[in-house]
Automatic annotation (TrEMBL):
The keyword Membrane applies. It comes from the Bacteria. It comes from Lacticaseibacillus chiayiensis. It is found in: Membrane. Keywords: Membrane, Menaquinone biosynthesis, Transferase, Transmembrane, Transmembrane helix. This is 1,4-dihydroxy-2-naphthoate prenyltransferase. It holds the Pfam family UbiA. The chain crosses the membrane at residues 52-72, 93-114, 120-139, 151-172, 192-214, 246-275, 295-318.
Length: 319
């Protein structure tokens, strides 16, 4: 007789969506709306709230959908039934898939409302982001099985989220715009504005990529069993760890670049105080890479550095 599926409890849901990682996903959003207020003196409560909910929904979808796809695509039976939360807790795979699709629909609806409140360029950006989120673990060759995760995490989650958060707060003239006519369309992009945002958020781009890099290092052996060949597989574990040790240096060089070019407030020098913590977290992870025990340290680095940067942006706004 087939054992009935368990009901999804709140603790299991929080594990399914990997709650600590959601804080990391929402950080670029918080930095983006704050940067719009500091650098451009523009802020919309309505747009910021709508995008915050949409970003949270898509972040929940990405993690949940990844878990579902990892369950269906698992080559290692032991992983599928004992490590993946769906198999381990005997949850309904189709029920969990339906839940993730609901999260996606919520994000899409909120995104369309934002498009109507801003301009069509947001529709294009959002469609690209949603497409990458789906194809990351879906399709004949999921992006998660290629050495692209770190690049996508840094550019899409770090830079992309930050850029949208700034854009939805900008009033006319908007730095990114798309207008459709009956037979023509007009697209405009302020490249200086885009470069400014990239330099300002560069440390967060690096740290977002670092979270994915650490995740792939910790999962390397299991990923190979499931035929998932990520960047650490091609680098080799020891070389990947050597690269990972360089991340604190790259992050703080990026911070100083933003301050020197005055694209971050002078208050951001206070973020340098997080250097010992980020360095120690990096050493702790590389000494014994583990998903269960030390992976959390890379998220702590992102939240500590990003949280301090967020505070300095608000110091810049207030003073």
């Amino acid at each position: 007789m087939t054992q009935p599926y368990k009901h999804l409890t709140w603790p299991l849901f929080l594990e399914f969506i990997r709650l600590p990682a959601k804080a990391a996903s929402m950080l670029p959003y918080a930095l983006g709306i704050s940067y719009a207020a500091w650098a451009f003196q523009q802020f919309s409560w309505v747009n910021s709230l709508l995008y915050g909910l949409a970003q949270l929904a898509i972040a929940l979808f990405v993690t949940g959908f990844n878990n579902v796809q990892d369950y269906f695509k698992a080559k290692d039976h032991s992983y599928q039934q004992q490590q993946n939360i769906i198999g381990r807790e005997h949850l309904s795979p189709l029920g969990m898939l339906s839940l993730t699709i609901l999260m996606l629909l919520v994000s899409v609806v909120l995104g369309l409302i934002l498009v109507m409140r801003t301009n069509l360029s947001l529709l294009v950006i959002g469609a690209i982001g949603v497409g990458i989120a789906i194809l990351y673990t879906f399709g004949p060759i999921p992006l998660s099985r290629l050495p692209l995760g770190e690049l996508l995490a840094g550019i899409v989650e770090g830079f992309g989220t930050f850029t949208i958060a700034v854009l939805i707060n900008m009033q006319v003239p908007q730095p990114l715009d798309l207008v459709l006519g009956r037979r023509t369309f007009a697209f405009s992009l302020n490249l200086g504005w885009l470069l400014q945002l990239f330099i300002a958020v560069l440390p967060i781009v690096i740290l977002n990529a670092a979270v994915m890099f650490a995740d792939n290092i910790a999962d390397l052996e299991q990923d190979v069993k499931n035929e998932r060949y990520t960047l650490p597989y091609y680098l080799g574990k020891q070389r990947a760890l050597r690269w990972y040790r360089l991340i604190p240096f790259a992050t703080f060089v990026g911070l100083l670049l933003g301050i020197v070019t005055k694209l971050l407030p002078i208050w951001s020098l206070l973020v340098l105080a997080t250097w010992p913590l980020v360095l120690n977290n990096t050493r702790t992870f590389t000494a014994s890479p583990s998903k269960d025990k030390t992976f959390i340290y890379t998220i702590r680095s992102l939240l500590s550095f990003g949280g301090a940067l967020l505070v300095t942006l608000w110091l810049g706004i207030l003073f």
